[in-house]
Design goal:
globular; alpha+beta
Length: 377
């Protein structure tokens, strides 16, 4: 295999931290290590530093000591790890792809309503979905009449930001539960008067598109709700596989399992062994993985170049899985926090393997080779 570049597309904040190695939870060293296994050299770039007219870019490349900016020909394959919500950015990426550059995970922030609608149209997946609707006054009233426990989540939110719970109890009526501004582990409960949301909540829901979703009764670990993060990625043969999974346990007194909101990452087998009958654990995990693969394969037929996904899947006390949501920019560090270092490394290895697979496609006539030489700036 010849040595060649693979692009890693980053947002500006992370890109600026490269010289001082302050890239948050993204490990550049793992990109370097795993890319080498496939004869690749990662180059880290921003959309703003891509020049379509000259088919070149300014990117950071590791030279063995530090990261230096270089002018490079556009890499044939780019792994998108950035979020670009603006129309002009999306337009530029489309132009890039029209030129023959392959960008995988080209869009990694699909609305929760979009994903739910796509999966609802799949008969073999529909019964794994909690009931959900885009939130309006009418849909909220409808859902409150059908289900005693609801989750309100921003359609385009991530890492648990903005999530609220609406719960009915016979002895107390409806209550809205939401995070306190004092910290991710603190929650506030407000009783609803005449079943109406408080004014500040109504105003927020009018400004920000939300989804209202039936809350599935999840298994609990030490009295805390649990769901599973399943990382599904394409690899060296181009097909989807399960890279790994871990359990996300909500903080005490909370209902959101996201690690960014105080949740704890633990090996799934260890957690489930303590909360499910022993004979049920292997079957439940097998069912979860089958659901994750079927979901990604179905979505990939409808979403362009989907290749690197983190799925949140809940389990009931009976071991039945439910799809919760799909994360197009998987936060891989959960594996490291769960003490699963080798799988954490695999979450970087498989995208680099898939990049190698895509680069090898010219031999099959699917991607035209590009020419050019690097120049240090």
């Amino acid at each position: 295999m010849s040595q060649t570049y693979v692009g890693i597309l980053l947002n500006t904040g992370m890109y600026r931290g490269i010289p001082t190695r302050r890239t948050g939870q993204e490990s550049l060293s793992l990109y370097e290590e795993t890319a080498r296994e496939y004869g690749l050299t990662p180059c880290y770039l921003r959309l703003a530093d891509i020049d379509l007219s000259s088919e070149s870019c300014i990117a950071y490349v590791y030279n063995g000591i530090d990261y230096s900016k270089q002018e490079l020909p556009l890499p044939q394959v780019i792994h998108n790890r950035a979020l670009y919500p603006r129309a002009e950015a999306v337009h530029k990426i489309r132009k890039l792809m029209a030129m023959g550059i392959t960008v995988f995970n080209v869009n990694n922030r699909y609305g929760k309503d979009t994903i739910h609608r796509l999966l609802w149209n799949a008969p073999h997946l529909r019964h794994y979905l909690p009931a959900a609707m885009p939130l309006t006054s009418r849909s909220l009233s409808t859902m409150m009449s059908r289900y005693p426990d609801l989750i309100l989540k921003p359609i385009r939110g991530s890492v648990g930001h903005g999530i609220m719970r609406l719960q009915y109890r016979e002895d107390a009526g409806w209550a809205l539960i939401y995070p306190s501004p004092t910290g991710p582990r603190d929650w506030i409960t407000t009783r609803l008067r005449r079943g109406e949301l408080p004014g500040w909540a109504r105003r927020r829901l009018e400004r920000v598109p939300y989804l209202v979703q039936e809350r599935i009764p999840l298994v609990e670990y030490e009295g805390r709700p649990v769901d599973l993060r399943v990382t599904v990625q394409r690899g060296i043969h181009g097909d989807f596989g399960i890279t790994g999974r871990f359990a996300k346990v909500s903080p005490k007194g909370g209902f959101v399992c996201n690690i960014a909101k105080g949740g704890e990452a633990l090996p799934a087998e260890d957690v489930l062994a303590q909360i499910l009958p022993a004979a049920l654990v292997p079957a439940a995990l097998s069912h979860v993985e089958a659901l994750a693969l079927a979901t990604c394969r179905y979505l990939s037929d409808r979403l362009p170049l989907l290749a690197d996904v983190g799925l949140d899947i809940g389990l009931t006390p009976e071991g039945r899985p439910y799809f919760i949501e799909c994360n197009g920019r998987d936060q891989r560090y959960g594996f490291r926090k769960a003490g699963m270092e080798s799988i954490w490394k695999d979450t970087y290895r498989r995208p680099m393997a898939f990049a190698r697979y895509l680069l090898d496609q010219p031999a099959k006539g699917t991607i035209a080779p590009r020419k050019g030489s690097a120049k240090t700036t």
